[in-house]
Specification:
The protein has 222 residues and is an alpha/beta fold. It has 8 helices and 9 strands. Strand 3 (50-52) and strand 4 (60-62) form a beta hairpin. Bound molecules: S-adenosyl-L-homocysteine.
Length: 222
Amino acid sequence: MRIDIITCLPRLLESPFGDSILKRAQDKGLVAVHVHDLREYSTNKHRTTDDYAFGGGAGMVMMIEPIDRCIQALTSARAYDDIIYMSPDGERLSQSIANQLSLKKNLILLCGHYKGVDERVREHLITREISIGDYVLSGGELAAAVVADAVIRLLPGVLNDETSALSDSFQDGLIAPPVYTRPSEYKGWKVPDVLLSGHQAKIEEWKQEQSIKRTKERRPNL
Ligand code: SAH
């Protein structure tokens, strides 16, 4: 899989992809993440990518031309399954959207900043809009990193234990059961006996019960 992220602040995306699972996934060649600096697609001499809003009002608007030029450069090199604009009023990210996206081959994630992008970008250049929740961030970079993380960890081979992503919350409509590690007792707080029993069938049964109980308590809508 290949993910291209378009941003006017590429440095904001360095650390999410430079460590841990997302870095290993790239090192193993399971995903290629390319971050594109919009300033390189600007045609004016100050390499600006934003301008004042027509009609006035506070906040700068990201110009269509650099975005169009960048998308053109990418789409002329290969076909993309989706060109996604990160937007607070987009379709809300969910596990099922992450699952869906993980089956795609090439994706573009476009990050807005300031007041967002010129509306004509949304009308003509993108295929989909995704929000990570009903709150406003200062830019789409963190949102794009969230989407990419949720997608990349689903790719076969990314997680060490192949079944691990499948046992996470939301995958089967259930919340994951609680987990514990050593020590088995800390300050008098004990790990449930069943987990130390070595009786695999009972352990599985307990996990299933806990998942159902948690789902009822925390996410009855599932
Ligand atoms: N004026 C816009 C908000 C702009 S926030 C409005 O009121 O809807 C600047 C940028 O941050 C957006 O262009 C978008 O790319 C990103 N962003 C902000 N909140 C987001 C969210 N919840 N999900 C995804 N992207 C978001």
